[in-house]
Amino acid sequence: MTTPEPAVLPPPEPVKIGLLSISDRASAGVYEDKGVPALQEWLGRALLNPVTWVARVIPDEQDGISAALRALVDDEGCHLVLTTGGTGPAPRDVTPEATLAVADKEMPGFGEQMRQISLRFVPTAILSRQVAVIRKGALIINLPGQPKSIAETLEGLPNATPPCPGIFAAVPYCIDLIGGPYLETDDTVCKAFRPKTAQRPKRA
Predict the structure, then answer these.
(1) Which residues of 121-137 are buried (b: 16+ CB within 10 A; e: fewer)?
(2) What is the CATH classification number for the domain harbouring 117?
(3) Of 53, 106, 115, 124, which is the most exposed, with the fewest CB atoms less than 10 Å away?
(4) pLDDT, tens digit (0-9, with 9 covering 90-100), for 79-93
């Protein structure tokens, strides 16, 4: 008896991701931006999909941040937009306000979980004001400014006691629900969670 050939899965769907680093000094060339490279490095390991990156570094100006977010979603067609920087309580930290200004829906669970993760390390995590929103067919998430914190909030703390889930595990299903491409992840970096009815066959 011959063994049936395994089903040939179509290649992962392409995804367009916007990366927005918000910093007065980095945008002015005073120092090298580390936010966008940190995001690309982590996402490059986590995602199996072919990614088109649209990256920008801009100053902490509320109107400019909102304009950049609108452009990444409306003009560039990004399915996911991640920002880094500008989420603290200082007068120049206006990323959350700029993000909420372009929102169709707010997704408060993302910010709540990011603060839970960061509170494992520093009590000042309660000062962070990251938000996440839906604009049209895109998910926009504010992330911390430090590369180490970016990775921790995306990936979570799986080896902590008790473990603390990262926010990216919920991102693929959220993108599904708003009509975006099916994001596939490397489980060794971040295992995406979907209800069984929303799962497609896993790649070998």
Answers:
(1) eeeebeebbbbbbbbee
(2) 3.40.980.10
(3) 124
(4) 999 999 999 999 999
